[in-house]
Amino acid sequence: MTVEKKDLGKVAVLYGGVSAEREVSIKSGTMVHAALMAQGIDAHLFDTQDKSVFDLKTEGFDRAFIALHGRFGEDGTLQGALELLGIPYTGSGVLASALAMNKVRTKQVWLQSGLATPLYRVLPRGADVDAVTDEIVAELGLPMFVKPPHEGSSLGAGKVNSANELKAACELAWRYDTHALIEQCIEGRELTCAVLGSGVDTLSLPIVEIKAPSGDYNFHNKYNGNDTVYDCPAQVSPELTIEIQRMISDAYRALGCSGWGRGDVLLRTSDNKPYLLEMNTSPGMTDHSLVPMAARTFGISYEELVVRILCDARLHVQRPVKD
């Protein structure tokens, strides 16, 4: 149950961490902390690289705002620890976090739910790429996109324009993960939509269209460059806007997500058909991030957004009821 702002107590902003997205998480957490402090909330930065999560209990924290990205923060491991500690936290629970962090399992759930997502293959680290390149090209076509299935922020990801580039792209992905996810490349517009809340009460924020230089929304263009253009709300028809928002909400609920999240889609140029790419359960909250951008367009300030997310912090695992 959502709590009131006055009842939030001592809040830990979990940030930093040990994933490859540490740099982004530090930016997110710093901004979240400043916003909470500006709202009069007793918020404290807590770097999970430097401190044990068990210190949250001994230091008397009442709840946690998760501003960690990637593994050991967004993948269900931290959520499980917080459940054991009995400390309510923002975002999705253990299972939904783990599913959404695994792009392969995410796609399997979506396909089972009748939701469109690009065709794909998965190769384990060390696989003989040359032996299967022709088969994969025949199945997925060119170009293709290769990424680590447990990573975010476009780390280890790249576009493959010719068959002889596939091996190098897989080797790059394997630097970050035990497997390489190879996806059919949908040529079209890159869109994203944030969702707030849970179950039937979810709220879809305005859609954002991302126009990166040369169509490459890489780490630099996400966080450090100023050449990427963002259209919010995206210039799509009202009917298509509703369809995409409904699709992302369905994808969010299919994974069991709650609290907040952001779904990414590609809108195919040839027929305006949307394809789901991934679901982020702890999206970026930096000055370049997309959820705050969409919230502002909707009329929700950054400070209001972080408080709203924090007020929805909860435990997801039901404890036995004592007689």
Structure characterization notes:
The protein has 323 residues and is an alpha+beta fold. The protein has 3 domains: 5-90, Rossmann fold (3-Layer(aba) Sandwich); 99-116 and 186-309, ATP-grasp fold, B domain (D-amino Acid Aminotransferase, Chain A, domain 1); 120-184, ATP-grasp fold, A domain (Dna Ligase, domain 1, 2-Layer Sandwich). The chain is built from 11 helices and 13 strands. The strands form 3 sheets. Strands 8, 9, 10, 11, 12 and 13 form a 6-stranded antiparallel β-sheet that branches. It has a 4-stranded antiparallel β-sheet with strand order 4-7-5-6. Strand 8 and strand 9 form a beta hairpin. The longest helix has 17 residues, at 22-38. The protein is globular, with a radius of gyration of 20 Å. The model has no long low-confidence stretch (mean pLDDT 93).
Rg over CA atoms: 20 Å
Number of helices: 11
Q: What's the CATH superfamily of the largest domain, by name?
A: ATP-grasp fold, B domain
Mean pLDDT score, rounded?
93
Shape: globular
How many angstroms separate the termini?
Answer: 22 Å
Q: Architecture of the largest domain, according to CATH?
A: 2-Layer Sandwich
Q: How is the CATH topology of the largest domain named?
A: D-amino Acid Aminotransferase, Chain A, domain 1
The proportion of residues in beta strands is 15-25%
Low-confidence residue ranges: none
Number of domains: 3
- CATH C-level class of the largest domain is Alpha Beta
**Fraction of helical residues:** 25-40%
Number of strands: 13
Largest sheet: 6 strands, antiparallel
Q: What structural class do you assign from the helix and strand content? A: alpha+beta
Q: What is the ordering of alpha helices and beta strands?
A: EHEHEHHHEHEEHEEEEHEHEEHH
